[in-house]
Design brief:
The protein has 433 residues and is an alpha/beta fold. The chain has 14 helices and 19 strands. Strands 15-16-17-18-13-12-19 form a seven-stranded mixed β-sheet. Strands 3-2-1-4-5-6 form a six-stranded parallel β-sheet, sandwiched between helices. The radius of gyration is 27 Å and the shape is elongated.
C-alpha cells in the first residue's frame, strides 16, 4: 500500500475518531471532516493529517472516502448535498459508508455513486467504541466483489474481521441481525440480573459462577458489574440502538415477520428514553425492568383509575376500575387460540359494559361457566367470564385505551389448565373488592 494514498474520513464521533487515527498511523494520507470543526482540529493535533471545512473538500483526490456519521439524514447531507463528497469524488474512487443506516439508503447511495462512476460499499461495523480504539472492529460489507477486494486491506487498519455479505444492502441487513441478537441477550441478561438482586444474590458472585457456562456472553462479562452499580456510560447509546432496531423491525414487517422479543425490548428502551436515559449505553435496559418492578409493587396500594376499552371496531365499549399499573395474565387458551396476549382480571363489580350489548355474541364452552363475549362486527373477544372465577371479568389488555396505563405487568399461566391456575386467577380478581 502506498504511503501517499489519500483517503478521506467524514465523521469523527466515538467510532470515527479512532478509526481515522488507525488509517493515519498505517501510512495513509488522511483528510478528515467533522461537523464540529474543533473535533477535527483536535484529531489533526493527535494524529497528523489534515482537516477540511466541508465534506466535498475532504474528498478531493481521495481514492477512498469513508463515512461514519449518525443516521440516514446525516449520511445524505455529507454525501449528496451541494458540498457533499459525491460532488468532488472522481471516477474509480470508492465510497464506504460505515454508518448503520436503513437498507433503502444503501441502495439509494449505490445508484447515486454508479451514476458518476464511483464504487460504493455499505459497511456497518460492530465492536463498539473500545473495538474502534483498539482496531478490532468487525465490518459487515454489502457490494460487488470487484469493489470490495481492493479496499478490504485498507479496512484492516481498524478491523480484525472484514467480510463481504452479498449485494449492496447486505451489510446493513447483517448489522440488523447483530442488533437483534444483542437486544435479545440484553433483555434476558437484564431480567436475570434483576431477578438475582431481588432474590438477595450478589450480582458479581452470580456472574462469576455462571459466566463459564452456557449463559456466558460478552454483555455478561463486560456489563454485569456496571449494571449492578447502575453505571451506564460505556459507549453505544440507547438512542442509537432504537434507531437500529427500528431499521430491523421495518425490514421484518416487509418480510411478514413478527419479532416479539425485539419489539418488547424496543418498547422498554423507549421507556428508558422517556425517563431521560437515551444517552446511556444499551445495558441501561435493566433500569426499565427495575422501574417497572417498583411501579408494580407500588400499584398494590395505588388508587384505582377508570380505564376504557372495547372491541376493535368500537361497537362494544366498557370500563374497568383498576390501578394505573395493570397486573395482567397471559392467556394461551386453546379454545380462543390466543397466545401471549395480556388479560386483566377484575371483580365483576369493577366492570361496566357501557355500549354494544346488542352487538355481542356469547360463546359458552366446557362446564358452561366460562362465557366469552365476541363483537358481531369485528369478531374480537372483548371480555369473558372465566370458569375458574365466575364472579370476575377478564378483559383483553390490548383493547384498553393506553392513555391511563402507566405500565403492564404480565403473569404467565397455562390457559389449557384452568383448574391448575384457579388460585392465581382468583387472587388477581378477588383481592380488595
Amino acid at each position: 500500500m502506498s504511503s501517499q494514498q489519500k483517503v478521506a474520513f467524514i465523521g469523527l464521533g466515538a467510532m470515527g475518531y479512532p478509526m481515522a487515527g488507525h488509517l493515519q498511523r498505517n501510512g495513509f494520507d488522511v483528510c478528515v471532516y467533522n461537523r464540529t470543526e474543533t473535533k477535527a482540529f483536535a484529531w489533526v493535533d493527535e494524529f497528523g493529517g489534515i482537516s477540511a471545512p466541508t465534506p466535498a473538500e475532504a474528498a478531493v483526490d481521495a481514492s477512498v472516502v469513508f463515512l461514519c456519521v449518525g443516521n440516514d439524514s446525516d449520511v445524505r447531507t455529507v454525501a449528496s448535498d451541494s458540498d457533499g463528497v459525491l460532488s468532488t469524488m472522481t471516477q474509480g474512487a470508492t465510497l464506504i459508508d460505515h454508518t448503520t443506516t436503513s437498507k433503502d439508503l444503501a441502495v439509494e447511495l449505490d445508484k447515486a455513486c454508479d451514476a458518476i462512476g464511483v464504487h460504493f460499499l455499505d459497511a456497518p461495523v460492530s465492536g463498539g467504541q473500545a473495538g474502534a480504539e483498539n482496531g478490532v472492529l468487525t465490518v459487515m460489507v454489502g457490494g460487488k466483489q470487484s469493489n470490495f477486494d481492493p479496499v478490504e486491506p485498507i479496512m484492516r487498519a481498524y478491523a480484525k474481521h472484514v467480510q463481504l455479505m452479498g449485494d449492496v444492502g447486505s451489510g446493513q441487513t447483517t448489522k440488523m441481525v447483530n442488533q437483534l441478537a444483542i437486544a435479545g441477550i440484553l433483555g434476558g441478561l437484564s431480567e436475570a440480573l434483576h431477578f438475582a438482586e431481588c432474590a438477595g444474590l450478589d450480582i458479581d458472585e452470580v456472574t462469576e459462577a455462571i459466566q463459564g457456562g452456557a449463559a456466558q456472553s460478552w454483555q455478561m462479562n463486560n456489563r454485569a458489574t456496571t449494571m449492578a452499580k447502575r453505571e451506564y456510560d460505556f459507549g453505544f447509546a440507547i438512542d442509537w440502538m432504537r434507531k437500529d432496531l427500528g431499521f430491523a423491525l421495518d425490514v421484518a414487517d416487509r418480510l411478514g415477520l413478527h419479532l416479539p422479543i425485539a419489539t418488547l425490548v424496543d418498547a422498554q428502551y423507549a421507556h428508558v428514553q422517556e425517563n431521560g436515559g437515551g444517552r446511556w449505553d444499551t445495558s441501561g435496559l435493566i433500569e426499565q425492568i427495575r422501574i417497572r418492578g417498583e411501579k408494580v409493587a407500588a400499584s398494590k396500594d395505588a388508587t384505582r383509575v377508570t380505564h376504557t376499552g372495547g372491541c376493535h371496531c368500537g361497537a362494544v365499549e366498557w370500563t374497568v376500575e383498576a390501578p394505573a399499573v395493570l397486573d395482567t395474565h397471559t392467556c394461551n387458551c386453546s379454545i380462543c387460540d390466543i397466545n401471549h396476549f395480556q388479560h386483566l382480571l377484575v371483580p365483576e363489580s369493577r366492570f361496566t359494559l357501557t355500549k354494544g350489548e346488542e352487538s355481542l355474541s356469547l360463546y359458552t364452552f366446557g362446564s358452561g361457566l366460562a362465557k366469552h363475549y365476541f363483537c358481531n362486527q369485528c369478531g374480537v373477544k372483548s371480555f369473558y367470564i372465566p370458569r375458574s372465577n365466575p364472579d370476575g371479568v377478564s378483559v383483553n389488555a390490548r383493547c384498553i385505551k393506553p392513555e391511563t396505563v402507566e405500565a403492564t405487568y404480565d403473569t404467565p399461566f397455562d390457559g389449557r389448565n384452568w383448574e391448575k391456575n384457579a388460585g392465581s386467577l382468583a387472587h388477581l380478581s378477588k383481592v380488595d373488592e
